[in-house]
Design goal:
The protein is mostly helical. Helix content is about 65%, strand content about 5%.
């Protein structure tokens, strides 16, 4: 990583600040988006991956998973270029961002609470002529409920996964003496995403009760389907992001004038 104490030109210093802010911004923006979208919609990709339509095992991912792989690409780039402390700092800021998202969603409901609530789901309804009518702010309260469940359940998984990613990345880098970038990139990401997939699915179900599971289905099979679907999706992107890692790291080292030699 570069040495902040070494004199560099103002141009290079600005470049380093801009690149760091860009990667941190993409990381934090993706994190906020995935927590708000969360489990608001599930995408069934079973047919695309060749699963039998009659099979009890389905390939289903939450829409919030879609921007998730990019967060690991960002932390790996920050780890490689700026070091472990900077990467860990971004992870902690991500936790604060999670809390901020929860606060805003809570505040939006607290400032103008609905007159009546559905007893089973805590979602607002109004009554006209003796019949329940869904009001215009139903969408907000529905997203608020899902965001609370998804964000609270993912915070533990997020911390575990991101810190595992940063620590495994630097452990492999130390063991390989800076060689084999592909190994530390894939090893750290695949390990941390397995931790995340298992934790977030189990916590989302048992704590937030936010997974669309039919009571008639075998719970163990369904949960494993969700875990494997989420992990396989992240696994494929983790392998794919080796390409941008190998392209971006040498380029950014030259662009930012980071002297450490990149060794494969």
């Amino acid at each position: 990583m570069f040495d902040d104490t070494k004199p560099v030109s103002d141009l290079i210093r600005r470049r380093r600040e801009w690149i760091f802010l860009l990667m941190a911004g993409i990381f934090l923006g993706s994190l906020a988006m995935l927590n708000i979208l969360g489990v608001s919609r599930f995408i069934d990709l079973s047919d695309f991956f060749g699963f039998d339509s009659e099979s009890s095992i389905r390939f289903v991912i939450a829409v919030g998973v879609l921007p998730y792989p990019i967060t690991f690409l960002c932390t790996d780039l920050i780890s490689e270029l700026y070091g472990k402390k900077r990467a860990s700092m971004v992870v902690w800021i991500g936790l604060i961002l999670n809390i901020w998202v929860l606060f805003i969603m809570w505040l939006g409901g607290w400032m103008h609470p609905p007159a009546e609530l559905l007893a089973d789901q805590s979602l607002p309804v109004t009554v006209e002529n003796g019949a329940a009518v869904i009001p215009h702010d139903y969408a907000f309260y529905h997203m608020r409920k899902l965001t609370f469940g998804a964000t609270l359940s993912s915070m533990i998984a997020y911390l575990c996964a991101q810190f595992v990613d940063v620590h495994v990345f630097h452990l492999i880098k130390k063991k390989t003496k800076g060689k084999m970038l592909w190994l530390r990139n894939n090893g750290s990401t695949l390990t941390s995403q397995l931790v995340d997939s298992v934790a977030v699915i189990l916590i989302t179900h048992f704590y937030a009760h936010a997974l669309p599971i039919d009571p008639a289905d075998d719970l163990v099979i369904v949960l494993w389907s969700f875990i494997l679907s989420s992990y396989l999706f992240k696994f494929c992107f983790a392998l794919f992001d080796t390409i941008p890692i190998y392209i971006l790291v040498p380029y950014l080292r030259r662009y930012l004038q980071i002297e450490d030699e990149l060794r494969f």
